[in-house]
Amino acid sequence: MTYHPKQAPLNILFVCSRNQWRSPTAEKVWRNHPAINVRSAGTSPHAKRTLKVNDIRWADKLLVMEQKHKNRIVANFTNWISHKPIYVLDIPDDYQFMDNELVELVKVSVAEVLNLTVL
């Protein structure tokens, strides 16, 4: 996706389980990119920020860390996701917030999925 400054940014929602390490890292890494607005949430009821209907409604695209997150979203938010693309990044729960390896995985995978240049 080529970004044009007059074009409205896409709303991107990053999702993991507890919104503790992976999705907040993705949110922080991509926070200042001019082509996207970002948020993060978790699918667990015990997440730091639990995924809600308003998050789904806000998002243009959802980027989830694992297939199980997509499955949970499809099961729990069926009425709100019919036209929302959900991309599985395949980033395992092996990292802590802002681990160097996690940051690199997030940069590469998100740039590839959204066709963006890492700033």
- In terms of structural class, how would the helical and strand content be classed? alpha/beta
Radius of gyration: 13 Å
Overall number of domains: 1
Instruction: Give the low-confidence spans.
Output: none
CATH architecture: 3-Layer(aba) Sandwich
Helix content: 25-40%
CATH superfamily: Response regulator
Shape: globular
Cα-to-Cα separation, first versus last residue: 15 Å
From the 3D structure, determine the CATH topology. Answer: Rossmann fold
Total DSSP E strands? 4
- SS field, number of helical segments: 4
| Strand order across the largest sheet | 2-1-3-4
Largest sheet: 4 strands, parallel
Our estimate of the beta-strand percent is 15-25%
| Overall average residue pLDDT | 95
Write a brief structural summary.
The chain is of the alpha/beta class and 119 residues long.
Structural key phrases:
single chain; 119 residues; alpha/beta; Rossmann fold; four-stranded parallel sheet; 4 helices; 34% helix
